[in-house]
Design brief:
This protein is an alpha+beta fold. The chain has one domain. It contains four helices and three strands. It has a three-stranded antiparallel beta sheet. It is globular and about 40 Å long.
């Protein structure tokens, strides 16, 4: 059971996939994450690149929690 929980915590989801599951556009996911409105992962802008590119790390277990889904349980 612990291994399943660890797998869920490390599984990443793309912005596009998260947007589909949330029923919004990918840009809406990005904006909500930047503003701290959705706690489904984290985003940051690498400072040393000289660009204003943001990276988004969305995790399955946090997205499921946001959507009100429980992790599947083994029987």
């Amino acid at each position: 059971m612990e291994d399943i929980n660890n797998d869920l915590k490390s599984e990443r989801v793309s912005v596009t996939q998260a947007a589909k599951e949330l029923g919004v556009t990918p840009q809406a996911v990005r904006e909500h994450m930047k503003r701290g409105l959705w706690q489904i992962g984290y985003c940051y802008s690498p400072k040393n690149t000289g660009k204003n590119n943001w990276e988004y790390h969305i995790y399955r277990h946090l997205l499921n929690r946001h959507l009100g889904k429980e992790a599947e349980k083994c029987t």
